[in-house]
Amino acid sequence: MGRHAAARRLPVHRRGDGAAFAHTAGPQSWKPFLHRPRVKLWDADRTGEGFEVRDQAPDPPRYAFLGVRPCDLRAIAVQDRVLMGGRDVDPDYRARRQGAFIIAVNCTEPGETCFCVSMGTGPEAGPGYDLAFTELVDDDGPRYVVDIGTEAGAAVMADVPSGAAAGADVERARAEVRAAADRMGREMPALGLRDLMAENLDSPRWDDVAERCLSCGNCTMVCPTCFCTKVTDTTDLTGDHAERWQLWDSCFDLDFSHLHGGNVRASAKSRYRQWLTHKLGTWHDQFGSSGCVGCGRCVVWCPVGIDLTAEVAALRAEAP
Question: Is 136 part of any domain?
Fold first, then answer.
């Protein structure tokens, strides 16, 4: 009999101190704003002499992201490398990313499924922000220690009533972030993950996961770094109008690995193994880092309670 884990309820508690950011990362990341779920690439209409094709040039809104957690800040940096850092650049992502103003918030209240410390992505924000807040809550309500990361951030702060932070406030802010690092709800075995994945492709643990995994793809949809897409063409009933769309895709989809003659990964076992070994292992080979930032959303959204930190720990414990 395999080992099974049941999905658990994650309680939500209301605070009474007026804090604006003393909560964990939300159910969805910032990914849908930058790497959109649906992007029209072009459309075409039949004419008397053939077809008129119109490319869809990016025309993004200007975003200001308020409340970006350190794990999500790192996730944006990871997607920057994937979608802008190589020879194949996603023009829609680049247009949206280059105009984004990022206000990060250091974490002082980690959640039950957070493990950013294990992945080196938090709870203090790393590079990439324009401004970074640390929230301090007193009897009179919240106030903020602000770190300025860019000239654009400095220009915004020049128009905001503020003053030089007192040394005691700076130290308190840093201490509260350090304390959060000791209260993580999860821990990922941090050393040698790439080699662990590569050396255990035939582990019986993958069969154990396959007994539980529904191949629903929830983990890939909420993951802030998953980036896979597919392209689909549609026409209207007359055949006179056609459109090409780029859509999010998931390696848990049976057709994701379909080639002429069949599917490369036909089993739930092979699809989960592909996801986890890529996220923690071969991502290093492609992009120079892990694809996991420790946000824990995949754990929260898994309908059968599969916890990747537990699966990695089991692989390590069962490794020869």
Answer: yes
Q: Within a domain: residue 185?
A: yes
CA distances from 175 to 62, 107, 119, 203 (A): 34, 11, 20, 42
* Helix H or strand E segment including 52: strand 50-55
What are the distances in angstroms from CA 169 to CA 6, 18, 137, 146, 176? Answer: 43, 19, 11, 11, 11
Q: What is the pLDDT of residue 8?
A: 55
Tens-place pLDDT, residues 85-105:
988 899 999 999 998 999 999
pLDDT value for 1: 38
Beta strand residue intervals within 95-228, DSSP E: 101-105, 131-138, 141-148
Largest CA distance in the chain: 75
**Is 8 inside any structural domain?**
no
Amino acid at 301: W
Which residues, including other chains, have CB under 8 Å from residue 198's CB and lie 6 or more apart? 277, 281
Task: Give how many domains the chain has, as a whole number.
Answer: 1
Q: How far, in Å, CA of 278 to CA of 197, rounded?
A: 9
Range of the domain at 263: 31-318
65 neighbors 113 (Cβ within 8 angstroms): no
Query: In the chain, what are the helix, strand and coil shares in percent, each to the nearest 5?
Result: 35, 20, 45
Instruction: Return d(Cα 246, Cα 233) in angstroms, integer.
Output: 9
On whether residue 1 sits in a domain, the answer given is: no
